[in-house]
Design goal:
Helix content is about 40%, strand content about 20%. It is α+β, with helices and mostly antiparallel strands.
């Protein structure tokens, strides 16, 4: 197959042998792919620092079934603002690990590519915020067709109305007629998540702490049911939050 120039984000890398590297790329044209970069750890002319996590690059790739090949990668941006702040790094790594874990391989997802780009651009200029991470998550789940129902019961399709819903272990909200157990989800939380899907831009909606915590529990349940594992970058974010809290207390 011929070489193609692809727009891509570096999701993750794995050193192979003494000089090579296997990279996971999220491309605009072909979605998530895995590729072998021969000599990537030694050839500054062909790769330089381009194959670093969450860098945006233009890559010359030969697509193959299983493991493609990367001939060259040129940097579009490495997001220096993100790399100067540990908390922003943690959130950028999380976004990449999430896409790497949940997006189907070889399936073009231009809407998700634009969302991922917008989130990294947000992190480049703003402090890492939980509301932005949750905005990214609900829109990612929506694009992939995995988002929980926000307007009506997932089991009987009855509208939630002012009483809200009860969240099940998988993050799915159901009405009180279909379940007597689960965590309460306020109608305000469901309305906020719905507004995030309509807004299309980060930072456009003010969020109360209580509503944000509820939304977070719901999104954690929904993603956990599809991922089947806890992402390592979430532990990294948690560790940084604990460290930042201890600094403020001292």
């Amino acid at each position: 197959m011929p070489w193609e120039k692809l727009q891509a984000f570096v999701l993750s890398t794995l050193d192979y042998g003494d000089s090579d590297r296997i990279v996971s790329l999220f491309t605009l044209e072909h979605g998530r792919i895995r590729a072998f970069a021969r000599g990537a750890r030694k050839s500054r002319k062909r790769f330089g620092p381009a194959l670093e996590p969450f860098a945006r690059i233009e890559a010359q790739v030969r697509l193959k079934e299983g493991l493609s090949s990367v001939q060259q990668a040129d940097i579009i941006t490495i997001y220096p603002g993100i790399r100067a702040d540990l908390e922003r790094i943690a959130h950028a790594l999380y976004a990449g690990e999430l896409v790497d874990a949940i997006a189907a391989e070889g399936q073009a997802l231009p809407r998700l590519f634009r969302l991922h780009s917008a989130y990294l651009e947000r992190l480049e200029t703003e402090v890492a915020a939980e509301a932005d991470r949750r905005f990214y998550e609900i829109n990612l789940l929506n694009i992939l067709g995995y988002r929980p129902s926000l307007e009506s019961c997932a089991r009987c399709d009855s509208p939630f109305g002012e009483t809200g819903a009860l969240m099940q272990n998988d993050g799915e909200p159901v009405c009180r007629s279909c379940s007597s157990g689960g965590q309460q989800i306020f109608s305000a939380t469901l309305a906020m998540l719905s507004s995030w899907l309509r807004t299309g831009s980060f930072g456009q909606t003010a969020v109360s702490r209580e509503v944000l915590l509820q939304a977070g529990r719901m999104l954690d349940g929904a993603m956990g049911s599809h991922l089947g594992k806890r992402l390592k970058s979430l532990d990294f974010i948690q560790q940084i939050c604990i460290y930042e809290t201890s600094l403020k207390m001292n």
